[in-house]
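Before the break, one more example. Copy the sequence into your notebook; we will annotate it together after we see the structure.
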Amino acid sequence: MNYGYVKVAAAVPRVKVADCKFNASEIEKEIIIADGKGVQIIAFPELCITGYTCGDLFAQQLLLEEAEMGLIQILNNTRQMDIISILGMPVALNGVLLNAAVVIQKGRVLGVVPKTYLPNYKEFYEKRWFTSACDVAENSVRLCGQIIPMGRDLLFETADTTFGVEICEDLWAPIPPSSTLALQGAEILFNLSADNEGIGKHNYLRSLISQQSARCIAGYVFSSCGFGESTTDVVFAGNGLIYENGTLLAANERFSFEGQVVISEIDVEHLRTERRVNTTFAACHANCVSALPVRISTEYVNSRDLNLTRTFEPHPFVPQGIALDERCEEVFSIQVSGLAQRLVHTKAKSAVIGISGGLDSTLALLVCVKTFDKLGWSRQGIVGVTMPGFGTTDRTYTNAIDLMNSLGVTVREVSIKEACIQHFKDIDHDVHVHDVVYENAQARERTQILMDIANQTWGMVIGTGDLSELALGWATYNGDHMSMYGVNASVPKTLVKHLVKWVAEHDMDDASRATLLDIVDTPISPELIPADENGNIQQITEDLVGPYELHDFFLYYFLRCGFRPSKIFFLAAHTFKGMYDEETIKKWLQTFCRRFFNQQFKRSCLPDGPKVGSISLSPRGDWRMPSDASSEMWLREVEGL
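Here is what the structure looks like once it is written out:
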């Protein structure tokens, strides 16, 4: 099963200018390598059979005939291979010469795509030799003894995907041919290029390809010529780049003196999901596409097992390196701005927040502090309430008190023990039975206290629950589930600790920093069950519901990408190999699917809160799901793994 992945390659072979036989042999070598690695479609540079820098030699009949002989050589020697190859060569047609891409498979030419936009400025003089596709009326060409479909609107269909081709300068045009091809159904776009190097040009190229693949919601495979092209005036680095919806999947080594093949897998299933969800894409199709494309079917049937070469981040919500600092700053700023607007609009005089000494309430408190500072309000208007209960440990209690004191907020302490004991007597519940009644009564008592203090102080209760807890329903209905504004509502658990650590390192004094870093290292727990005999936390959330790094991985691919459980399992097993065995992954994936469905009722009445990333579970925005939807199909697929 290939799970919607199409294995593609960008090849940069060695080249000798005007030596078609040599070039054809080098191209064959790269095709054989790629075919052996299960590549389905491979792209080569612009005019790779002749070399791009032939200049006025393109007017020589011998060169054109040898180019066709080189193509015949490649066709004959790859006849038994399923791989589809896209090659660049000059093609003569009725007195004009075309700079063309030739798509071949199993000894047959499938189609010819001529270049649309010919650069004729600075170092480029292509109009001296070639004619644009716009100026050609014919829709077929004779090549290698075949009558071949020809046009810039050709779409090539395999059993797994549909792809289109453009050539170098086409991408630089205000409206590239690839935009139209994508709207007509191309999921992967191939560009055969001869892009010379210059200071800063490579970064611009990457940005250009990234943006085009993102706008088209497509895969984009770029192959540009390299070593061996003439260096009379310019140098070619040999860029092989593979993008998917704006993200770089693979890149080769630039300025290599040897031939290279860079390989990755493009997830066309994900692209299809993104296109269905993005209504603007469909609107552009209706408004911008008039002519019907020419569709060409291939013989490719993918019968090989998928061998992934691309990697996946185990923590998709948490970037690496300097990008993490940028992410934390942006998320924190969104949280602060969202809360500031709500406080100003409601004319609230205080922000009331329950402080447990855990990560989520700590992050929410830090958001409140930054918000009050930016508004120029006294931190004394932040009412931090610690509410010790039956499971509160000395570590979390001390951290809660120390943090509030170091931040200079108003500190209140209200024990919930006596109130809960009285409540258990009122409803005739044994205080020694540590069941769901025992746990939820504490959560609801705390929420009642916070709401009443907010009424006392003309304030708002600030919610602390995060995105991961909302996905799993790991909150007490009308308990910690409820607030007046939830600042963490779309922040995943795996990012929360990085946010707290980032604030500690960038915006805190030594005392606050030490407390915050200890909170980061504290096991995640609701602390609703009494501690053990040594005073340590006995109720560890991840022992009960599963590792949050797995659940955030499941959540990302379930919501962001719309993947089915079997594909999520496949990716998790690939990504977490050596960390979790397949049985463990399956167990917690089953938990995720079951809880995500049966806990929707809690999300259906979710308090307001700011969206900070690509995923939100707000019933008013990103996620509108009936509370009584069946999880049967998803669970059945997990059970069959």
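The domain at 5-297 is CATH 3.60.110.10 (Nitrilase/N-carbamoyl-D-aminoacid amidohydrolase). DSSP finds 20 helices and 20 strands in the chain. Try to locate both features in your own notes.
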